[in-house]
């Protein structure tokens, strides 16, 4: 199912009758993963991606890469194509790069990473290192990590884009403390993507950033869609509400992901995914129906009524 940006706006407004709840034909639901268009080019990508922050070994992490390899393989086999990582994530780039090379799937992926240095030469060295660690000659997307050195790095990314080393450029944050600055950068620079934290109980980004990105034709990747695990803690052992079945929801993870990607400004979500079970569940959120604006409001009311708790879990 390939949904254009305009159709997504219609879905969000509840105006696309053919995609309204209860009106989608079964054959439409069987076409595979929902995709959205990247505003700057019209290229389509699946709405469910994979965040690679925790692909690490050692104390507190995995003992070997077997589980990671299986997860990446399953994600790919089920139609997943978007993977986001960073040299800032310990040895994740090295581990993931080796696994993608072993699996032989890199050429089919939309691979995104980040630059996290203040000065130009340090940034160039960092990005070149990412190419080497990921065993690739280019990235689909390079992002300035948490806005660090953005005034220096964005011109460098433009150079890399002209040279064909990257296809898209963007900026990221995982904190609303940087939203005001990010807003100014969006207005000042021509970007292909922004990446923000956004979840059913963390909706600050939709106040200004998401509408601005939508208006200016900037793609949006979403990190931390589970609120750093907070949402799973809040729902606890509760059953899904019966009305969640109306938009093909089979788990709380899918409930949270469908909420995020149903926002008309959001291009894709990149939940941290290191297990096959979570890969299967997450991909399931990218199939079938997406909530309309009315259902989104009902989801928000449901979540807002839950008790506030803190406990680490899925990101």
Layout: helices, strands, pairs:
Layout: E1 2-3, H1 5-13, H2 26-29, E2 35-37, E3 44-46, E4 50-51, H3 66-77, E5 82-84, H4 92-103, E6 110-115, H5 120-133, E7 139-144, H6 150-163, E8 166-172, H7 179-188, E9 193-197, H8 209-216, E10 219-223, H9 230-235, H10 252-261, E11 268-269, H11 276-284, H12 293-304
Parallel strand pairs: 1-2, 4-5, 5-6, 6-7, 7-8, 8-9, 9-10, 10-11
Antiparallel strand pairs: 2-3
Helix pairs in contact: 3-4, 3-11, 7-8
Structure characteristics:
11 strands, 12 helices, 315 residues, alpha/beta, 3-stranded mixed β-sheet, TIM Barrel
What is the CATH class?
Alpha Beta
What percent of the residues sit in helical stretches (DSSP H or I)? 25-40%
The CATH topology comes to TIM Barrel
Q: Note the main sheet.
A: 8 strands, parallel
**The CATH H-level homologous superfamily:** NADP-dependent oxidoreductase domain
Give me the secondary-structure category.
Answer: alpha/beta
Could you state the order of secondary-structure elements as H and E? EHHEEEHEHEHEHEHEHEHHEHH
Strand content: 5-15%
Globular, elongated, flat, extended or rod-shaped: what is the shape? globular
CATH architecture annotation name: Alpha-Beta Barrel
Taking the alpha carbons of the first and last residues, their distance comes to 26 Å
Number of helices: 12
Trace the largest sheet across and list its strands. Answer: 4-5-6-7-8-9-10-11
Mean pLDDT over the residues: 91
Task: Please provide the count of β strands.
Answer: 11
Radius of gyration: 19 Å
Q: List segments where confidence is low: pLDDT < 50 over at least 5 consecutive residues.
A: 3-30
């Amino acid at each position: 199912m390939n949904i254009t940006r305009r159709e997504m706006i219609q879905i969000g407004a509840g105006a696309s009758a053919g995609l309204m709840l209860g009106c989608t034909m079964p054959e439409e639901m069987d076409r595979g993963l929902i995709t959205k268009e990247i505003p700057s080019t019209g290229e389509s990508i699946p709405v469910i991606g994979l965040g690679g922050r925790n692909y690490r070994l050692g104390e507190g992490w995995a003992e070997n890469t077997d589980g990671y390899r299986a997860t990446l393989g399953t994600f790919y086999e089920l139609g997943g194509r978007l993977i986001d990582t960073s040299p800032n994530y310990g040895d994740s780039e090295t581990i993931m790069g080796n696994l993608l090379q072993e699996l032989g799937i890199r050429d089919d992926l939309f691979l995104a990473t980040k630059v996290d240095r203040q000065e130009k030469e340090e940034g160039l060295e960092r990005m070149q290192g990412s190419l080497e660690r990921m065993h690739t000659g280019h990235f689909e997307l390079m992002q300035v990590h948490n806005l660090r050195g953005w005034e220096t790095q964005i011109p460098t990314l433009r150079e890399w884009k002209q040279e064909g080393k990257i296809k898209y450029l963007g900026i990221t944050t995982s904190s609303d403390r940087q939203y005001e600055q990010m807003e100014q950068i969006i207005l000042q620079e021509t970007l292909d993507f922004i990446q923000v934290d956004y979840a059913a109980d963390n909706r600050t980004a939709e106040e200004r950033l998401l509408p601005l990105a939508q208006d200016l034709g900037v793609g949006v990747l979403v990190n931390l869609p589970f609120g750093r695990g907070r949402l799973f803690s809040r729902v606890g052992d509760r059953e899904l509400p019966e009305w969640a079945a109306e938009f093909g929801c089979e788990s709380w993870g899918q409930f949270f992901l469908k909420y995020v990607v149903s926002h008309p400004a959001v291009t894709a979500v990149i939940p941290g995914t290191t297990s096959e079970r979570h890969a299967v569940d997450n991909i399931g959120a990218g199939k079938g129906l997406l909530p309309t604006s009315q259902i989104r409001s009902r989801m928000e009311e449901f979540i807002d009524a839950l008790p506030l708790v803190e406990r680490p879990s899925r990101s």
